[in-house]
C-alpha cells in the first residue's frame, strides 16, 4: 500500500462527482501532513498521466482529477473524470478561483468556514453580511464625494479673544 492510498480509497468511496477540499481536509484523510511543496507549487497538484508522483497517481487511479487549485486559500477541488485508472484525462488549469454557482450557498458557507477557520455557520453569515454592508456603505460614501484624501480645508477663524 502506497503513502497516498488513503486518499485513493477515500475518493473511490465517494458517491458524488466533485469534492471541494481544504488542504487540511486532505491531510485528515491521509493521516499525515502534506509536504510543503503541496502548499507552494501548483505543479504538485497537476494531473500527470506519466511520471512517478504517487500523490497524483492516487487520485487518478481512483478516477478523479484536480480542478480549481487555489493555494492562496489552501483549497482544491477534485472532480470525477471517469472510471478508475482512466486514460488521458485533461490537465487541471494552473490556478482559478473555485467555481461555485449561486445555488451552492452551503458550499460557499463551508468554504468561508474553512478559510476563516470558523465552524459556526451563523457567525460566518454575520461576518459576511457585515462585510457586504460595509462595502456597500463605502461605495455610496465614495459616490457622494465622501472620500476626498486630497481635500485641503481652510483654517477656522478664531475669535479675537483667543
Low-pLDDT ranges? 84-97
Label the overall shape. elongated
Please identify the structural class as seen in this structure: alpha+beta
Please work out how many helical segments DSSP would assign.
Answer: 6
Mean pLDDT: 79
Descriptors:
162 residues, alpha+beta, 2 domains, 3-stranded antiparallel sheet, 3 strands
Explain the overall architecture.
By secondary structure, the protein is an alpha+beta fold. It folds into two domains: 1-96, no CATH class; 100-147. Helix content is 40%, strand content 11%. The protein contains six helices and three strands; from the N terminus they run H-E-H-H-H-E-E-H-H. It has helices spanning 5-13, 23-30, 36-40, 54-61, 105-116, 121-143; strands spanning 18-22, 64-70, 75-80. The chain has a three-stranded antiparallel beta sheet, sandwiched between helices. It starts with a helix and ends in a 19-residue tail after the last helix.
What's this entry about, in short?
This protein is 40% helix and 11% strand.
Helices and strands in order:
Elements (H helix, E strand, L loop, with lengths): L4 H9 L4 E5 H8 L5 H5 L13 H8 L2 E7 L4 E6 L24 H12 L4 H23 L19
Antiparallel strand pairs: 1-3, 2-3
Amino acid at each position: 500500500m502506497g503513502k497516498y492510498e488513503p486518499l485513493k480509497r477515500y475518493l473511490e468511496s465517494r458517491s458524488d462527482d466533485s469534492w471541494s477540499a481544504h488542504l487540511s481536509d486532505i491531510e485528515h484523510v491521509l493521516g499525515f501532513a502534506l509536504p510543503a511543496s503541496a502548499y507552494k507549487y501548483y505543479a504538485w497538484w497537476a494531473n500527470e498521466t506519466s511520471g512517478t508522483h504517487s500523490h497524483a497517481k492516487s487520485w487518478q487511479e481512483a478516477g478523479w482529477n484536480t480542478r480549481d487549485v487555489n493555494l492562496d486559500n489552501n483549497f482544491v477541488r477534485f472532480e470525477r473524470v471517469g472510471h478508475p485508472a482512466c486514460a488521458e484525462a485533461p490537465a487541471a488549469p494552473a490556478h482559478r478561483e473555485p467555481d461555485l454557482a449561486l445555488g451552492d450557498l452551503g458550499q460557499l458557507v463551508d468554504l468561508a468556514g474553512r478559510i476563516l477557520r470558523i465552524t459556526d455557520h451563523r457567525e460566518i453569515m454575520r461576518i459576511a453580511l457585515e462585510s457586504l454592508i460595509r462595502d456597500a456603505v463605502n461605495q455610496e460614501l465614495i459616490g457622494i464625494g465622501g472620500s476626498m484624501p486630497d481635500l485641503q480645508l481652510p483654517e477656522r477663524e478664531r475669535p479675537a479673544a483667543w
